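[User]
If only I could read backbone structure tokens as easily as an amino acid sequence. I have put the entry right below:
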Amino acid sequence: MADARAGEPLRIRDAGPGDVALLLELFGELARYEHLEHELHATEEQLAEALFGERPAAQALIAELDSQPVGYALFFPTFSSFLASRGVWLEDLFVLPAHRGAGVGRALLAAVARQVREHGGQRLEWAALDWNELALGFYRSLGARTMGEWITHRLHGDALSSLAGESSDRPAG
């Protein structure tokens, strides 16, 4: 395993439109790792629009060692009413298994944190699967606090459509 801190040059760069296929491939690697392949439905067209369209919904960074992609971070802006400040939700932080423990994840997370601060943000948040002790230990080592009092909720598919239908008397926007 290559150690990014003591050898190969590590480069963190912004993803561009030419990286859409690569990002989808990396999403597939993450889905396999998390045993969630059945939930990966994104297409190149959808991702290109989401990241590089007229109103980008998210940003991505790609980590490279010797010009080879080894990981990525995907994130989007949030807002805290209590802080009256911007923040970032880190949707994905993924490093290929062969490159874990070499500082790649930390470098990606540091790059996201830098962007938070450069835009006046006050917080960076994310979720991790409760069984992923490797990730949980890594996050604890950074000083991240587990928000045990908060429980994530999700509306998806029919439940989302049903609730959205209740507001059909109001124009969207």
